[in-house]
TrEMBL record:
Domain GGDEF positions: 230-361
PROSITE patterns: GGDEF
Pfam families named in the record: GGDEF
The species this protein was found in: Photobacterium ganghwense
Annotated region described as Disordered, given as residue ranges: 367-390
Designated name of the protein: GGDEF domain-containing protein
Length: 390
């Protein structure tokens, strides 16, 4: 019961784990792409800022040297102002939070730029060379500091971004490793389920005591052969005196005899035959008939019971009564085949046991008067359960 619960849990958990890892890998990939794209986007905004800052310094120096007028210089100042505002207003969009201290540094430079405004406005009425000189020096120093900060902070190998990218890559590797492990576990689970399925099928189709095929397998095999119209011979084997063995020596001795008989029947010196235990002390053999018939199983089958069998701690003589019939020569259906083989086996019992008789057409009339066991044998084949040894 515990194994069944564990198997069911694995069947549920394994695909869910695989799905979860796939989703996590996909999300991590998107996160990695966002970091990469945000790095490019942030670089573009910062590049535009430094470009406009450099242009403002140029216009300021040109104004100082009377190479440009006041309006051109103020226009560039307003453009630079708008660049700072754009970056600070859209900091979440361009992911500046990924860069430690970037927002604070840019805000600080913006405050310094805003501090220029009163002096720049005063130049419209009084272009004092001293004020212009101070503005040029201050702006140049601020620009150089900004460029130095940008070059250090916004390159791919910078500490902040590099650590995030490396962490993302490591997590992605770990998740892929987990995925591989999960796939291996899933494969192991699949193999276990297949092996268990084969084992269950074997348990369903084989007799647990003797290891040969059971009644369920025999029933299906007979149906298959008759449906395909394949010619075969059917032997019904009943051990002589088996009830007396159980009654006098015990069921353990009877089981030992059944195991020994099953071994002998499974090792006959012949080809194209299969053995099954029908239940109790009855066995069956199916022999496929070839186009060029060779010697049948008759002789080797009777020889299998000549040697004494060891059970109940000593050797005992054994024998069997065997009836045989052929499809489609004598029987056209499974039911008739079983009735004919059973009737032939019953004839052996009537004649003193320890022998074999093949059903023939001249026995048809006698078959109609066979005992009740003959009429019900086909029905007894239907249940798959093994009968206890008699």
């Amino acid at each position: 019961m515990r194994q069944n619960k564990t198997r069911k849990a694995l069947i549920i958990i394994t695909p869910l784990l695989v799905l979860s890892i796939l989703v996590a890998v996909s999300a991590l990939k998107r996160h990695s792409d966002i970091i990469s794209s945000s790095q490019h986007e942030a670089n573009w905004y910062i590049l535009q800022l430094t470009k406009e800052y450099a242009e403002f310094n140029y216009q300021l120096r040109s104004y100082q040297g009377n190479l440009s007028d006041y309006n051109d210089m103020m226009l560039q100042y307003e453009i630079l102002w708008s660049r700072f505002k754009t970056i600070l207003s859209n900091s979440a969009i361009i992911h500046l939070h990924l860069y430690e201290g970037a927002l604070e540094q840019i805000q600080q430079h913006f405050d310094l730029i805003k501090a220029f405004e009163p002096r720049l406005v005063s130049l419209a009425h009084d272009p004092d060379p001293q004020i212009i000189h101070e503005l040029v020096d201050t702006s140049r120093n601020q620009y150089e500091n900004l460029v130095l900060f940008v070059n250090n902070k916004f390159r791919l190998t910078s500490g902040d971004l590099k650590r995030r990218v490396e962490a993302t890559e490591k997590i992605e590797i770990i998740i892929h490793f987990m995925l591989v492990v999960t796939l291996i576990l899933g494969g192991a689970l699949f193999y276990t389920l297949v092996s268990e399925s084969r084992l269950m099928r074997r348990l369903a189709m084989y007799d647990s005591l003797t290891g040969v095929h059971n009644r369920l397998w025999l029933n299906q095999k007979l149906d298959q052969l008759t449906e395909n119209n394949e010619p075969f011979r059917f032997y019904l084997i009943d051990l002589d005196g088996f009830k007396q063995i159980n009654d006098t020596l015990g069921h353990q001795a009877g089981d030992e005899l059944l195991v020994e008989v099953a071994k002998r029947l499974s090792c006959l010196n012949a080809a194209h035959y299969r053995v099954a235990r029908m239940g109790g002390d009855e066995f069956a053999i199916i022999e496929k008939l070839q186009a060029d018939p060779v010697s049948s199983l008759d002789d080797v089958l009777m020889d299998a019971f000549k040697a004494p069998a060891y059970y109940a701690k000593e050797f005992h003589a054994i024998s069997a009564s065997i009836g045989a019939s052929e499809f489609p020569k004598h029987a056209k259906t499974v039911s008739h085949l079983l009735q004919q083989a059973d009737f032939a086996m019953y004839e052996v019992k009537q004649q003193g046991k320890n022998g074999m008789i093949h059903y023939s057409t001249r026995q048809a009339e006698a078959a109609e008067n066979s005992p009740m066991k003959t009429q019900t044998l086909a029905q007894e084949l239907i249940p798959p359960a093994n009968l206890p040894a008699k």
